[in-house]
Amino acid sequence: xxxxxxxxxxxxxxxxxxxxxxxxxxxxxxxxxxxxxxxxxxxxxxxxxxxxxxxxxxxxxxxxxxxxxxxxxxxxxxxxxxxxxxxxxxxxxxxxxxxxxxxxxxxxxxxxxxxxxxxxxxxxxxxxxxxxxxxxxxxxxxxxxxxxxxxxxxxxxxxxxxxxxxxxxxxxxxxxxxx
Amino acid sequence: xxxxxxxxxxxxxxxxxxxxxxxxxxxxxxxxxxxxxxxxxxxxxxxxxxxxxxxxxxxxxxxxxxxxxxxxxxxxxxxxxxxxxxxxxxxxxxxxxxxxxxxxxxxxxxxxxxxxxxxxxxxxxxxxxxxxxxxxxxxxxxxxxxxxxxxxxxxxxxxxxxxxxxxxxxxxxxxxxxx
DNA sequence: AGAGTCATGTAACGCGTTACATGATTGT
DNA sequence: ACAATCATGTAACGCGTTACATGACTCT
Lengths: 179, 179
Hints:
Two copies of one chain form a homodimer. By secondary structure, chain A is mainly α. The first copy, chain A, has two domains: 3-84, Orthogonal Bundle (Arc Repressor Mutant, subunit A), CATH 1.10.10; 95-178. Helices cover 66% and strands 8% of the residues of chain A. In chain A, helix 2 packs across helix 3 and helix 6 (108-133) packs antiparallel against helix 7. The first copy, chain A, binds a DNA duplex through residues 2-4, 17-19, 35-39, 41-42, 45, 60-67.
């Protein structure tokens, strides 16, 4: 499921511009996917060529024409096919954890700083989810996805708080051994 | 932190061949990073050119020469620099969750099947971690990383078990409304 | 005054996956 | 017999990021 296919999926839900699709990525998918304009706009152009989506341009003053995309029946079929394929393994890439692996090459204050920043980020995410979870009118699916993010962030926060000593103590021991 | 830099980091811990580096990715980093030979071997070649690592070839019979890489002082400095940069945001890409977003386009049995498979995968991961967590002689850092994976897998399992109804019920309701 | 929102795009570039190529040895 | 382990690599290709280009309107 590349960005292209995901854009197509979003267009099964409603007509949208590239700009609006980006917002769906930010609002609903941000915890487990991201996409930049540099990938969204070319994706839309290509799918238009392929006949999977159609585009109506709306003139605006002082801004580029607004291009409202809608899915075609060929596009809808293509997306249904994509939903029948088995999802591939998650791709995760965490530089934070990769750095933790080398904690014995860092001074303790650096390790602590990294973990503190990470926790701050997690708490910020959680706060943000909390504020938008209250809103009624949120579809169940979006609730499910947001709740998923929430559960993961909480689990990570709890784990870090309880286990940071494993990397922080390790650094102290390596330094002690070096003396 | 690209694959190249991570290979360099692994070589701060011990000399290794490309093949062995791949195993470190599989054993210690698999929960939040992955790398294929197609990225590891070119990375090693390039870092050799750059003078960050050095290579000793060992002849073998019936197999390609074993190339044992070791980090140079220039390489060690480069890696220390990398550890001072602030880690970039995690990159996550979950096709499973992306598909869940479109649960109302799938028949209930398909949704249930996807979730069941996902749970099976999570349980398999957890089982695997359980078996290798017992081993003494596992460094604290590796414990920390494995424990991290464990905590995440458990959190996801629990979340899915408790909240799958949100996507499964949604599908039923959409279908009911369509009747 | 400055940040943020709306709105589209292109071009270069790097990164990494995938598939291919080779082939002996060891374990089930 | 068959799969897995050991061991290295290349080439094509796609995907996506990043930076750049443009510019008005609105909120603080």
